[in-house]
Design brief:
By secondary structure, the protein is mainly beta. It has no helices and 20 strands. Strand 14 and strand 15 form a beta hairpin. The radius of gyration is 18 Å and the shape is globular.
């Protein structure tokens, strides 16, 4: 098994996230082609104002956070980049919420670098309390929208999951201590890393026909993943982030099994349920395949 991006490329870029920006739109294995936290086709999401600024809020964040136009929840939470630089991604939306298993963070970032893809990306956050004392540092990979063919040497190629210029990437970080709540957090400092690869864009896996379905547990998503790669893939999966009107991720629903999907074939899914369906979604498929 091999996860794209785990091969050390000729150039590794460790960068700090830049200023918060307004949202744009994106389209969007054994080698593991993992559009998430590592590849896939992102659902279209809408545009918005500057995170952290005086953005007009069209709803009650506490009562209906899936319907308002807030880019940062809880409102007014100070979020800043780690001192030292900038790179391909800009973080523009973030949700911090208490969940049954503990504190969870959802973030959306955009690749604003026009020069090339950002591959095998990850987001790291450091949480501070109201006295500006660090509570903990947490990290997870970013779900990114596209697949690239990367040449390692004359005899070896592999597939990397990347964010093309203009793409939206998302993540959930939910491995935080169970005794931390939103009320404990005074500020967040973030950092991200990625590989800058000289790679060629591929037709990869595409999510289509996504439909929200109301269940007893909340809202799940049905849909189809199309395999546009030239090889069979196995272990297909999909991650779906419901988003609000400006593209802020509200939760994460997943589906996956041990199926095999031939080249040109498809796989149908129904995800787990989320409690806030939002007004749109971003979906990222993944699968495994052998060289």
């Amino acid at each position: 098994m091999f996860r794209p991006g785990w091969v050390m490329p000729t150039k590794i870029v460790l960068v700090l996230a830049a200023t918060l920006v307004s949202l744009g739109c994106s389209s969007g294995g054994a080698l593991k082609v993992d559009g998430g936290a590592n590849g896939g086709q992102a659902g279209t999401v809408g545009g918005g104002g500057l995170a952290g600024s005086s953005v007009p809020d069209g709803g009650d964040d506490a009562a209906a956070p899936n319907l308002d136009d807030a880019l940062i929840v809880p409102p007014g939470l100070p979020i800043s980049l780690e001192v030292g630089g900038a790179g391909a991604f800009e973080l523009f939306a973030l949700t911090l919420r208490d969940e049954p298993n503990g504190l969870a963070l959802y973030a959306a970032l955009k690749n604003t670098d026009p020069t090339g893809p950002a591959c095998d990306a990850a987001l790291r956050v450091t949480l501070y309390d109201k006295s500006n004392q660090p509570i903990g540092m947490f990290i997870n990979g970013l779900y990114t929208p596209h697949f690239y063919l990367y040449t390692i040497d004359a005899n070896t190629t592999t597939v990397a999951a990347c964010a093309s210029p203009g793409d939206i990437a998302m993540t959930r970080i939910d491995t935080m201590a169970t005794d931390i709540t939103v009320a404990d957090i005074g500020s967040i400092v973030y950092y991200y890393s990625y590989f800058a690869l000289d790679a060629v864009l591929l037709d990869g896996l595409t999510v289509t026909q996504v439909t929200p379905v109301t269940t007893g547990a909340g809202t799940s998503y049905t849909g189809t993943v199309l395999n546009r790669l030239s090889t069979m893939v196995s272990q297909p999966s999909v991650a779906v982030f419901p988003v609000n009107s400006v593209g802020r991720p509200l939760g994460l629903a997943k589906a996956g099994d041990d199926s095999q999907v031939p080249a040109g074939g498809s796989w149908t899914f129904q995800t787990s349920a989320v409690d806030m369906p939002g007004v749109n979604y971003a979906a990222f498929p993944s699968a495994a395949f052998s060289n």
